[in-house]
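Quick one, tokens below. Sequence please?
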């Protein structure tokens, strides 16, 4: 009799659990999996939103990748099927190679500084975190004003304080547009900083005490205790940061009014995808671009996970040796 009551109770608990998660499952299937499968189908069609989709097979993918052998042989980008696609991918990778390491370094450094026991440290933590919760549109409008070569405050500062006679044109200069966006991206390092700060405060103090007993100085304690114990948090921020940089859109759309100028210097991948979908109404090709981006991000994420065995520590040991 007791076992029957136990089974009945377990079944009721299971039913209650499923009842709570069913709304999320339904939403996930309808609003995430459903659109993903629809976009996969559209990627094999010629679809302009108005007319019914027309099945074209691999034509959209051939449009992207055709001409690659000729490009590697001649180096002429005009041989590529869609040179604008490769330009957008190049711009995105260039931005990611600058913004991702700088964001990781700046946020981690701030977390280390704000983990010190000094008066008013909570106020400084709040000050550095607040910019990360401000709307991306508002931040972009602010930075457009700051980076304006004629009316902004940054170039006069470079001229009068640092003595730079010919400061960059920033968003109006093709050579400096992406670095300007990288500088803008550093505005929101407070979000990652909070995650690092939580990780730093979770490191057992016994490890530092043992290191001091062994005669380790401040740098040795950081390199041999703090950094290894923080590698799981670094790994987490690296994955999220990589995904975020490849999905960069809002700031560049606002800064360039959706054009990707000047001279397509800021034509990010997501912006090019948006243009195809909602400016040219080539939804089939836009879906193709979306799935190519998904594969690229998935491959890079898998590569990061694969490499984590060599540098991510869990409880003081390499994960691959556990």
């Amino acid at each position: 009799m007791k076992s029957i009551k136990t089974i009945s109770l377990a079944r009721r608990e299971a039913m209650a659990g499923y009842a709570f998660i069913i709304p999320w499952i339904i939403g996930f299937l309808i609003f995430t999996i459903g659109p993903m499968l629809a976009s996969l189908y559209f990627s094999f069609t010629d679809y302009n939103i108005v007319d019914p989709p027309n099945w074209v097979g691999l034509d959209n993918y051939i449009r992207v990748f055709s001409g690659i052998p000729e490009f590697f042989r001649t180096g002429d980008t005009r041989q590529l099927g869609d040179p604008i696609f490769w330009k957008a991918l190049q711009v995105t990778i260039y931005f990611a190679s600058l913004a991702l390491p700088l964001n990781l370094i700046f946020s981690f450094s701030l977390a280390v500084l704000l983990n010190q026991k000094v008066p008013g440290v909570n106020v400084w933590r709040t000050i550095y975190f607040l910019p990360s919760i401000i709307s991306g549109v508002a931040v972009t409008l602010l930075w457009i004003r700051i980076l304006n070569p004629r009316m902004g405050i940054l170039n006069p500062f470079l001229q009068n304080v640092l003595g730079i006679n010919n400061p960059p044109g920033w968003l109006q200069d093709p050579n400096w547009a992406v670095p300007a966006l990288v500088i803008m991206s550093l505005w929101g390092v407070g979000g990652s900083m909070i995650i690092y700060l939580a990780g730093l405060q979770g490191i057992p103090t016994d490890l530092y005490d043992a290191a001091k007993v062994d005669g380790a100085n401040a740098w040795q304690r950081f390199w041999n205790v703090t950094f290894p114990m923080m590698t799981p948090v670094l790994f987490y921020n690296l994955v999220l940061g990589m995904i975020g940089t490849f999905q960069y859109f809002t700031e560049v759309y606002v800064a360039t009014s959706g054009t990707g100028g000047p001279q397509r210097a800021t034509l990010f991948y997501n912006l090019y995808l948006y243009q195809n979908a909602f400016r040219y109404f080539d939804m089939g090709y836009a879906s193709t671009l979306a799935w190519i981006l998904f594969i690229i991000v998935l491959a890079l994420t898998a590569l990061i996970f694969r490499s984590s065995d060599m540098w991510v520590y869990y409880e003081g040991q390499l994960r691959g040796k556990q």
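The two ends are 45 Å apart (CA to CA). Residues 318-322 have pLDDT under 50 and may be disordered.
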